[in-house]
Amino acid sequence: MASITSLGAGSGIFSNDLVNQLVNAERAPTEQRLNQKQSLTEAKISAYGNIRSALEALRTPMEKLSTIEGMRAFTGTSSNEAVAGVSIDPSIANRGSYSLDVKQLAQAQSLASGVFADRDTTTVGTGTLTLNVGGVATDITVDGTNNTLEGMAASINEANVGVSASVVDTGSGFRLVMSAEDTGVDNAIQVSVADNDGNNTDGAGLSQFVFDGTASNMEETVQAKDAILDVNGIEITRSSNTVEGVIEGVTFDVKSIGTSTVKVEQDPEAVAGRVQEFVDKFNALQDVIQKFSGFNEASGQGGVLSGDSTVRGIQSELRRMLTTIPQGLEDSPIRMLADVGIKTDPSTGKLEFDQDVFKEQLEAYPEAMTALFAEKDGVEGIAERMVNVASDFIASDGALANRTDGLNRTLESIQDQRDRLDLRIASYEERLIRQFSAADSLIAQIQSNGNFVAQQLAALAPQNNQNQG
């Protein structure tokens, strides 16, 4: 901005205030228009952001309902949790009742050596110790660096072969204990040696740790056992107390000898809860859309997105989904959302959910209910279609992103216009200063000439008076 500190000094007519008033009057209309346009553009960007967030929130519960697993909720109960617990994979489980009679629990084998005087001084022999667990054999070298109970235990643990080893102080000596890390007969431990003393089976040197079915120089303190139980009268054997694969989608956790009845039942509350989440998020989206595109009767004004084609497109697509009949359900007692207790309030566009109706229909027609929501046999259900619709709108190249990108370009254009306005106003201000300065100088000169003439006339006045006398 040009300096105008001396403006008006000559004439007293032109001043800094006058220049500022003219400059502001020139700037104000354009600046006001740009401010209004920027404010509206930023409000639209914010509105699209809120709609995007609401669509993302809606997509989450719909993704759950778009899979068969999301529509299949089961609970498992055991009449005697002390004997057996139960867990369910809802994606593949089915209703059923199972009588369990647990006859034997699975156990992990433990072997104990003879008694030694100490844990880390007395040598135990040298050679190669071979551990065979589950059909996998591992050789462990025992030499002068590890030929004590403690040294052997450390080498076995470092080998990571499914056997843990420790040295136990019995009070009257020390024993090496090897324990299988997994239960069951198949995970029993076999120990063989190549003893450097030349005898691989006697009770001296490294061979005192042999336990291979032929020589048993270690004591089996805990026998390897499989879990044995009857399920509906059929005997089942497993290496673990976690019994899987007997009933599809059902896992028994056996804990003690005894009987229990396990029931697997549909859990309509869980599925209804997922649908309720969808309804809540759908209605929240309607609130957001109403806020930014609806008409406020009190103020007589519409929202910043009133009449927006993108918003209308979102509403149109989602409402179309609400009355869609998936292929294959044309003649089913369940064809659309209204048949399962989900209806639209025409005055608000929001959904109303009758959970009692939903749970009744889920229990009566579980397969049709799944087909209504989830993708099944290559046919998209309503939830899957809504996921796709929401994903299309909020994609990086979707309608919302395109509108937001366009608005951001508008903001850039507004800033360009502001920059040009600043340049124009600066030029205008400089022109005013030049014109006012020139005018000020001219007026000052005129005033100066006038003062001179007045002085000359005043000087002539006495002479005229004398001549007249």
Automatic annotation (TrEMBL):
Subcellular location: Secreted; Bacterial flagellum
Domain Flagellar hook-associated protein 2 C-terminal as annotated: residue spans: 224-447
GO BP annotation list: bacterial-type flagellum-dependent cell motility; cell adhesion
Keywords per UniProt: Bacterial flagellum, Cell projection, Cilium, Coiled coil, Flagellum, Secreted
Record-linked Pfam families: FliD_C, FliD_N
InterPro entries: FliD, FliD_C, FliD_N
Example of a GO cellular component annotation carried by this entry: extracellular region
Annotated Flagellar hook-associated protein 2 N-terminal domain residues: 11-109
PANTHER family: FLAGELLAR CAP/ASSEMBLY PROTEIN FLID, FLAGELLAR HOOK-ASSOCIATED PROTEIN 2
Family to which the UniProt record says this protein belongs: Belongs to the FliD family.
Assembly with partners or alone: Homopentamer.
Reported function: Required for morphogenesis and for the elongation of the flagellar filament by facilitating polymerization of the flagellin monomers at the tip of growing filament. Forms a capping structure, which prevents flagellin subunits (transported through the central channel of the flagellum) from leaking out without polymerization at the distal end.
Protein name: Flagellar hook-associated protein 2
Organism: Marinobacter lipolyticus SM19
Species lineage: Bacteria, Pseudomonadati, Pseudomonadota, Gammaproteobacteria, Pseudomonadales
